């Protein structure tokens, strides 16, 4: 999501439902309020419970009891500690409130209503077709930074936002993350505890809603608040234990969090799931369903209220501007030379850092291998080390783009699998992140299968609105490294460990969705489609076959998603036969991307797919490609085979 | 890997290289040894360093310095504490040694040589084509339980093996896991610390090789052993800090670990990376490469030695037998009724638990949703709760199958993405695990995209030797739940949240690789291929079209990998046109599996793919399928469209 790209009011609002009260009116209403602050906060907590119960009841589904445990925590936060301009979600001084326990969305939406951001009518369209008030929050609402609902992601993402505040934006906004107790079992939470603790992110506060009950029963530690305190403190955090329903204790805890200057703070709050309604309070079996008798619950909670929260405005910053960029002076390589595409990426992202001040690079302690190290040499202030914690690395990338930074997160292609759920959720967050996976395929050689990215194309293609790029030479890798910054969404660049010949001139252009024809003649009888290392195998095969008068077209499909359908269709029309060759498993890779082009069309070429089918061991890169049947010899045999087919009778059923 | 399935000597050994010395000879050699134990252990540590240096030197790659830091730790373990019969790797009493820092493979192989399991010739074929001594260890070697090399996996897997020892096998074997310090940044390590700490797995010992240096520089905590101690103790572990090069301290630490009866032990060892060779000792930039002057290093280490370790044999247990099973009495459902496939899975796996005593079920705190809860009701002793820690859940499944148990690990299909790297590595481990993902696709309805498995088919298909099953009714789900236990490798069952009509009789058979034809006539002009929820949409469309005299064949492709190629080819021959419809992203799912059948063949049908293309929000299941264009109306329109095509002129390039 680009800064400033969000409307001031939520999108997708159903026709007829109003935008809620304007801000002035809210302030006015609050001045009329005569209750003491303590009374008012308690009443507000009850209102949030009432509205959470009503929303889930209207929807016929949802998590009211998970909302009720944290209602007082959120009421005090929004009333007295949060700084946020609901009329200007992209205000650079806004605090960030991340609902890591995303299933408690009724609480968040009830809070938005109390803040005047949405109307009661909008609240009651919760979970309905077309409503942006989804079962779990997404940035379809302008006040939601990131999608949550896959537990254990809010805190690592919040750490990324807090990192931006402390090290890049240099603004005093705070990041507040509401976590459930069940999700503290996720390792990603401890990656975040370790990262934020060591980075000393004092602008980050985790509010731990310890309500004792998970989805199917008691949590591991129940109400043993000390169990959580010991763990969190061991990771260098400041902790405060509170009764999560005592507004004075909660208020004091938030003050202590704001006063703490050296460390992030965890507020460990003892709460009651379903608090306020005797039928469900601290009861098992009440998770994730509306209350059986909502009307009775609302009356037990004291009935409906219409208190409004006058959220404090940020006292610094302004409307965020996208940092401007100058022309990128990319590295260039001479045709005929040799270079690894991972090196070209490293040099290119370093050059991008010169031209674009919004470029940041994230590492999983392999920057020397991915070549992200070239960026750290030139821009140490915009390079962030997450050590071997890929989930925190990707989460931080998502957090940084929330603040308008353009992140490149790089590790081995194989190890992106460690953070796959974070990439999946980044797409739901409409996040704009750039991923780089080095050491693709069997071509890495001796290190063996644990280090080989062989499923990465399939996994990254199956991410909504993603782009998958796999250049075969240094100049194309450099161009695409810069180009992916222009794509909104999840972009993935797959790079090679070994050197490959430079086949493109420095001035050649490379577009997302494009391809290049490297061999072509009027007499081509077969088209070989390749990407990355296999492009060079295809070229060798084509040149050998040309010597025998067999014309073979070679297409470098460096953009695997979107793939260059028009060019592939034209090649199919002209040559009639296609061989695909990739350094990847046969499922979901380049070959399937090419076959997909010919789904939903009238004419389909004869095709043959070459990919890695057996589990590799250790061997040289050349031996690996030969063993896998994706080298020049295998391409040559495939071309001969597909040409031979038409002279044979069709086998039954084939 | 089934118990007893391993040869007594390593596989894939290159011709001419011997099996190493027989056991009796080793014992004999040791009796001749006149050094004191202390001298001998120090010499042994130097020998392991020498052989690690030689192996990496011969290979021209590898990680000798990472091996050298842990050489003394391993020398003392193997000599005086490990209980293992190298002649009988599947002996039920064997300890388990897991090299979590898999890049230190030269150390492991040097240890195998010292134990007489491999010869020096075999050691020097390290990383060569055909050698089972791969860059990172895999079970191609019979003494290796699981593949390592993706860091942070050894400890969670070891916790699974230790769980088997403590709760299922009830045998006194111990699990020893050697971890690097860099990998302690992985959240999965802390999932394991939490799990093993709370489970009180006293039979598990983590040896933390704190050598201060990672791949690209100093680790986060360097030699601050207390930083590790505080964290590990907070998670309930017993800890011992030692000088990792003092054999007496190391020996005492192992004794304390064996004496500790209540908690797992972490031995936190201060070590020097590259210890013993001044050119690389504690030097940055020496990671992951052979030593520049191996000969000089070997002489500095005191030259070659040929000490042998007389590893103590297990004092209990015997050759492991696969527990026998009786006939499975699966639940059955009446045709015409309705049931959710997730419920059928739950009932079926519970029935499987009655028939097969090796069946175990693992949960990520969603057993009420996945319906694994039916198993816990009947077999609480073989049900294991991992709370919301999917990586630990899958790792434990891998650990349990090491011991011959047959695990079913179940969570939401979407959340398997959290453990994708563990599934990837399970395939490299040749592990035999069963995964179950519930809440597939947009059909879950209101909860929204964070909870929808929409990439799971693509991700699981792209796992080596995997099986992907997606039944549409309760009887087929029950049969396939039992059937997947028979497949060696990673098997995946995708289940539905909502009820679907029962369309198959209780006696119908379902095979991995099979399919069912649900509608068929001599006049069929189009074949619709569906799976799961979309089968019922396809049937509704076919029945509507049949009313208009348009014959539509409907195939239930419940086995998506392997897909039923013969039946699809026959349908293509007979109907000429195929429409695929799936509740999944368009990339890497059912549609691509079907298109792949027609790659590499001579005749290809006209095809049209229906899948989820837009990012869903909240809505009812029916609204979701309609919005996504995968409901009966969309199938009907697709059939009409593909039939209309042939009456239109082919568009240019299409």
Describe the structure.
2 copies of one chain form a homodimer. Chain A has 654 residues and is an alpha/beta fold. The first copy, chain A, has 3 domains: 23-283, Rossmann fold (3-Layer(aba) Sandwich), CATH 3.40.50.970; 338-501, 3-Layer(aba) Sandwich (Rossmann fold); 516-645, 3-Layer(aba) Sandwich (Rossmann fold), CATH 3.40.50. Helices cover 37% and strands 14% of the residues of chain A. Chain A has 23 helices and 19 strands. In chain A, the strands form 4 sheets. Chain A has a 7-stranded mixed sheet, sandwiched between helices. Chain A has a 5-stranded parallel sheet with strand order 1-2-3-5-4, with helices on both faces. The first copy, chain A, has a 5-stranded mixed sheet with strand order 14-16-15-18-19, with helices on both faces. Chains A and B meet through helix 8, helix 9, helix 13, helix 16 and helix 17 of A and helix 8, helix 9, helix 13, helix 16 and helix 17 of B.
What structural keywords apply?
homodimer, 654 residues, alpha/beta, Rossmann fold, seven-stranded mixed beta sheet, five-stranded parallel beta sheet, 14% strand, disordered N terminus, Transketolase_N (chains A, B), THDP-binding (chains A, B), Transketo_C/PFOR_II (chains A, B)
